[in-house]
Amino acid sequence: MPPLVLRSFIDMLPFVLESGLNRLAVLAFAVALAAVTDMPARALELPPYKERLFGYPGILVPGDDDRYLIVDYRESRDINARDQVPERRVWGRYVSLDVRRQQQELAVDTPSGPLKYFAVGKQAGASVITVYVHGKGGSRKQGVNDYSFGGNFNRLKNLMVRSGGLYLSPDVPAFDATGAAAIAVLVDHYQANSPGAPLILACGSLGAEICYRMAADADMAGRISGFVLLGAPPVSAVLGSAAFNRRVPFFFGHGSLDKVYSIDDVEAQFRRFIKLKPDYPVRFVRFETGTHGTPIRMTDWRSVLNWMLALNKTRQE
Asked: 47: buried, middle or exposed (CB in 10 Å: 19+, 13-18, 0-12)?
């Protein structure tokens, strides 16, 4: 009998015996329990939430298996018409503030001092954990701002809460080993509270330095189910990292007019993933005419996370 089935049977055995069942009935109960528990587990799938508002507005160039997409982005539609106050406050239909009831501002001790962060959702027994690491000039508040970036962070919070998951938005003390160590402490804490929950690490802009350091760490790479890089700089060392060798999924979202990090360099890195491992689980979304912050505003979180969650289930089998 598998360990999980055995534990369940032991927990329920007193009730079964008190019911007066004979040994044959008890054995039949154990067999039935084992059969149910041994049924193949389905990958977690985040349920739809405001799909029509947050799905990609149009695909200009579809790719094979959605590995490379060029998405139609227009400032007049995707900022000016979407926001009540452009780049500051999205129209109300894009957000649901009920999720704020499950949002807390907390702190955890790290080697570099207390790390402040927001936690949204189940802090123990979570089905999935998503961590957003902000870039230079940002803070923990960016990742929980309901109205900025077209309401996309509000959607991410709702996706987590509605699926029994946990969303974390921490400060980043530094974009180096110190910062990576602090985020690792946060991850350790919540993975201990939700053992087995897939962990998705999303990094915006310079925050990608934290993602890349996690990818290089053999222990962390074995515990992360996917990396989401939004407007991020390319780092060639990731192609020889522990995460790359473990085939951890990577998603890159980038604006074609990004003046901070050239899209040509980031696309070249994406191509190298495929050149080295043709079947590597990597995706690239190019937001045509988009700028540096466009991927944070426009990335379809449900599509990206469900892709990674499905791959995580496959990797575990």
From this structure: exposed
**CA distances from residue 23 to 7, 19, 27, 177 in whole angstroms, order as listed:** 19, 12, 6, 59
Pick from 198, 172, 167, 203: nearest CA to 185: 172
Helix (H, G, I), strand (E, B) or coil at 231: coil
Q: Name beta bridge partners: 73.
A: none
Give the model's pLDDT for residue 30.
46
Residues in contact with 188: Cβ distance below 8 Å, sequence separation at least 6, in sequence order = none
- The pair of three-digit structure tokens given for residue 291, joined into one six-digit string: 């700028």
For the stretch 257-270, pLDDT in tens is: 999 999 999 999 99
> How many CB atoms lie under 10 A from the CB of residue 137?
8
What size, in residues, is the chain?
317
Rg (CA), the chain: 21
What's the pLDDT score for residue 315? 65
Q: What is the pTM of this model?
A: 0.87
Helix (H, G, I), strand (E, B) or coil at 196: coil
Q: Determine contact, residues 214/183, Cβ cutoff 8 Å.
A: yes
Contact 228, 204 (CB under 8 A): no
Whether the Cβ atoms of residue 235 and residue 207 lie closer than 8 Å to each other = no
